[in-house]
Design brief:
Blueprint (H helix, E strand, L loop, with lengths): L2 H20 L14 H13 L5 H10 L1 H4 L12 H10 L2 H5 L1
Helix pairs in contact: 2-3, 3-5
């Protein structure tokens, strides 16, 4: 398999993941959103794969790896903090998290 094909295939998987994130309802008031749900979910998935097991660790990973995250989404306001992640993730529809 060529490198170009591998990169294309990887981008397709990432695009599919980001497209899936787009269909999840965001419970927040749109004009007050500093961290779009897609950005938050990408952060949580990537940090979880990097063995971060609580929201403070996820937030710290996001701050340390913001350059990596910005390769895929803008993160205009940087990575959210741990307390904020806890509040938002508890508002996302629970059946979506545990199915």
């Amino acid at each position: 398999m060529s490198l170009a094909f591998a990169v294309f295939k990887e981008k397709s998987r990432l695009k599919a993941l980001l497209d899936h994130f787009s269909i999840i309802d965001d419970p927040r008031v749109p004009w007050r959103v500093a961290h779009p749900l897609r950005e938050v979910l990408l952060l949580v998935v990537c940090a979880s794969m990097a063995d971060c097991d609580h929201f403070d660790a996820i937030a710290a990973w996001g701050k340390e790896n913001i350059g990596f995250l910005r390769r895929y989404l803008p993160y205009e306001h940087g990575a959210p903090g741990g307390r904020w992640l806890t509040l938002l993730m508890n508002r996302v529809d629970p059946p979506m998290r545990y199915d």
